[in-house]
Amino acid sequence: MTKRTICRGGLLLLAAGAVCTAGLAAPQNADPTNLTADRLTYDTRTGVVTAEGGVHVDQGTGNIEGARATYNTKTQEGTIEGNVRAQREDMNLSCDRLLAAGQEHWQASGSVHMAKAGRTFTGPLVDYYPAQDDHIVASSGGTITSPDGTLSADHLEGWLKQSRFTGIGNAHVTSPARDLEGGGDRMDYYGNDPRPYVELDGNAWVYQGNNTARSNHMTVYLADDGTAVTQ
Q1: 230 pLDDT exceeds 90?
Q2: End-to-end distance of the chain based on CA atoms, in angstroms?
Q3: Closest CA to 65 of 107, 29, 42, 98
Q4: pLDDT tens across 52-87, in order?
Q5: Residue 58: how many CB atoms within 10 A of its CB?
Q6: DSSP states of 48-70 as a string?
Q7: Which CATH class is domain 1-102?
Q8: For the chain, what are the domain ranges?
Q9: b/e string for 185-208 if b means 16 or more Cβ within 10 A?
Q10: 224 Cβ partners below 8 Å, 6+ apart?
Q11: H or E stretch at 16
């Protein structure tokens, strides 16, 4: 096995997972993978593979690019950084740095913009766990935007497959289609319920049209006809 083959093989493990982040983990298949970079190195002592300069990987329906990538063959941890761009099927991700801690935990940091299945997340940091119903954790806060409106908070957590989201600290929800805005110390959104609703706790408030409601706890049901029922 040549040095170049070893470098290429190690980086492909990083790339194959990285392009499949945000709920699109690739199946274990034989999709051809192509890697280009200005420099490739492999340290046999540490087991670290490094690619630098114009890193670009294509695999199946996905691709990822950045300025520098590393992969540790011993720990299975990898990073790609520097104007990172990744795409696979209906997922698009951009960030400053993408970390892969094994196959079940990914972390994107620095001006994160992730779009998938009609939703967009923006924020400084997001951790993603694909095996847990596409679980995302934004410990530094962020905003989730969909055609229906926005959810934002100082701490955001969600399960994309369940369309369920929790926001803690300065929680804020908007729905322009319903002329609705609300907030509180905490919010819990349940989008897959037969009657989608959001629960607001702690200094909760809701505005719709000329109507205002305030309470320590509120449940707002979001009807298809654009109305909101508050309990």
Answers
A1: no
A2: 67
A3: 98
A4: 999 988 877 888 899 999 888 788 788 999 999 998
A5: 17
A6: EEEEEEEEEEEETTEEEEEEEEE
A7: mainly beta
A8: 1-102, 141-231
A9: bbbbbbbeeeebbbbbbeebebeb
A10: none
A11: helix 3-18
